[in-house]
Amino acid sequence: MATELDTGPHTTSPLALELLVHGVGGTTPEQMLGDPRTVRLAGDDTAGIHRRACDADAEAHPEQRRDEPVQEAYCWSNLTSGNGSRALWLLLLPFMITNLAHWMRPPTLRTRLARGYEVIVRLLALTLTVLLVAAVSEVALDIVGWQCAGRAGCARDKTWLGFAAAGHHGWWSQPGRRLALAAAAPVSLTAVLWWLSHRTWYAYESQRPAVRPGPPPPGTPPLALPGFWYGRRSVARLRTAHTAAGLLTVTTALCVPALTFDTGHGGTALRAAGWTIVAALSALAVTAAGAVCGADRKLRGLDDTPDPRTTRVLLGGSTGILLAAVLYGGWNRPGWASGGRLPSAQAFSALTVCQGALVAALAVCAVLLHRAPPPDFEDCGLALRGLAGPAVALLGCALGGVLTGGVAQRTADWLDGGRTPGSHGSPLVGPPAVLTWEASVIPAVLALLALGGAALAARLRRREHALRHEVEQMYPHEEHHASRTRQIARAIARAGLTDSAPMLIAVVCAAAFALGAGAVAGAWQGGGPPVQVAEGAPPVLRALAAGAQSLGSWLVGAGVVALVALGRRAYRDPSARRTVGILWDVGTFWPRAAHPFAPPCYAERAVPDLSWRMASWTQATGGRIIISGHSQGSVLAAAAVWQLDPAVRGRVALLTYGCPLARLYGRWFPAHFGTARLRDLHDDMHIWSNLWRRTDPIGGPVALGDHASEVDCGPLLDPAAYGRSTAHPLPEPVLGHSDFQADPAFAEQRALLLARLPEAKSVPAQGSSGRSSG
């Protein structure tokens, strides 16, 4: 039940508060606070602030807590986890990856060029939406509705398709009506994506940050601007434009086949109606692209202004033109029969080339931005020399192409009853050649990844061997054993693999670009899938082509199932979540600035929660706060501190451990977490300690140059003891990224931070520290 805590009007000496923020994988309030009896002071089941039951009214008795701060736990794990159905978000992984590219922009003072970079990323994200809807349209309209239903050899044994088969000669047997019926699949997908984006916005991302008096001064870091975590207008505008683009893609798939037939056989009225739809469709497509280009985020204030009228009518116009295309395509056309495949092959090739051109333009922008950094910029291991954004965008496009091509090929293989679509004797022509080629290069990509993994494993063994002498020097007064030394050296070597990620991504992106270009070239030059191109080749090449085509489709099907299974396990199993959680939580930490259908941003709920709590508690009590963040919680803590007023920030100390701020975020997102930005945060606070270990694969030192000795505490000895001793009678484990609070250095640094915070003055008790439920 919920109760109000009343401490009365007497005068008290303010408390010190330690606000704990957990990291990837989540945990319970009981585990964070080390007590089975906890109460929730504020929040809900999704994210809330908890205390020990004995500390619920600590503000009324501050004299009882003079030696150490009162602990509160902010639990946010339900923002990124829940029931297993949420694992389906993993199928939208290309959208999330492309959204990351928006935030990887190199830091610069060239605002126009920076805006051009962001516009290119948003257009690239729009092509991914078009690609997804076009792929579903290809499967539903072309492979099922046009090819399979139009051929007796394919539809004969499929009772679920019999009513629409060409040989049935029923009302649905005409090609245009079959296509209109099949269009329900991509239209439903578009509607589901719109609904998910709209629903998750109101569930997680509509929290208004605290309004500060006056405009922010010039030079304010982006993360300190009031509108950074509130992109309501931008996301709504992008959602409308992407939904319209999806509907227009389905409209194109419906209109073009009917107009192609009418051009040679139909009457003047039907041709005029078709070209009118095409003209309206083109105008709406240009409007949607313009809406995407103009969907900038307004960071210097809370942007609640309504959308322009053009974007408000865009969705209605796209829906209307889709209905017109359904009526136009379903019109009675005697003599129209389906043959071959729909005229969509060139569209997929053009879309792939368009994505390649946008990635190239993005790379040019990134190079120019990297060459014009701000005066205080320090290139401390910047990932891929400023090309991280284009590389990640290319990776998202490649993943989207492989998934769509593989799903289309797998569907055609399933409908073809074990034969290879496009081969001799098959009733199906199969998907467009470029999609088949993209599916066929999957075995080659996996082979390259296997070679990269083998090279990485060899490097790991060499590094482990080189570290053994260094490990023995870390424990100089111990009797060394080869197995124990090898265990510690292996932990340090594995932790260092994180720093090899940029090179690995560069190799994967280069391979993806080369193979993608080869797929487009093979589709254009060969004019068909690999199995057709190789028909005149020697038997070995024909077998390789057929095997690659079939194996690629099977691997995509198995990959989709494995991805969903891994996601379901990660949402339910903490150990699995810790394995994949860091990548997922980094991806969903950032607002949806480029793609509105990406998984929702949990930080747009968590950061306002933390900043509101710190500001309101210090205002009500006059007390001091240590915000203590582990792993991803340290990123949330830093982002929340940035959002505070300078007066409140002066009463807050930051304690981070297992912190990826410099090691991951600083290298990949330098415009927001680069060394200069972190130094500015330290200069605003002056009170910050960071604990780190060499065995930690995620966290590391903050490395603020001249301020490094003030902030970084480490490396902490891990394991705490090499062998057994009186103080350690049992073998000490290698902790790596966990259990920092068990290290004596944690309590020491917390005490030092508290001593450095300015003493608070006695103030009248405010009657309540919040609401509690128990």
Strand content: 5-15%
Determine the N-to-C terminus distance: 5 Å
Largest sheet features:
8 strands, mixed
Overall SS class: alpha/beta
Whole-number radius of gyration?
Answer: 29 Å
Overall pLDDT: 84
- The count of DSSP E runs of length 2 or more, i.e. the number of strands, is 12
Number of helical stretches of at least 4 residues: 26
> Can you tell me the CATH architecture of the domain at 2-56 and 70-76 and 602-715 and 745-763?
3-Layer(aba) Sandwich
Output the CATH class name of the domain at 2-56 and 70-76 and 602-715 and 745-763. Answer: Alpha Beta
Q: What does the overall shape look like?
A: globular
Question: Could you estimate the helical fraction of the residues in percent?
Answer: 55-70%
CATH topology of the domain at 2-56 and 70-76 and 602-715 and 745-763: Rossmann fold
InterPro entries: AB_hydrolase_fold
Organism: Actinacidiphila rubida
Keywords: Membrane, Transmembrane, Transmembrane helix
Protein name: Integral membrane protein
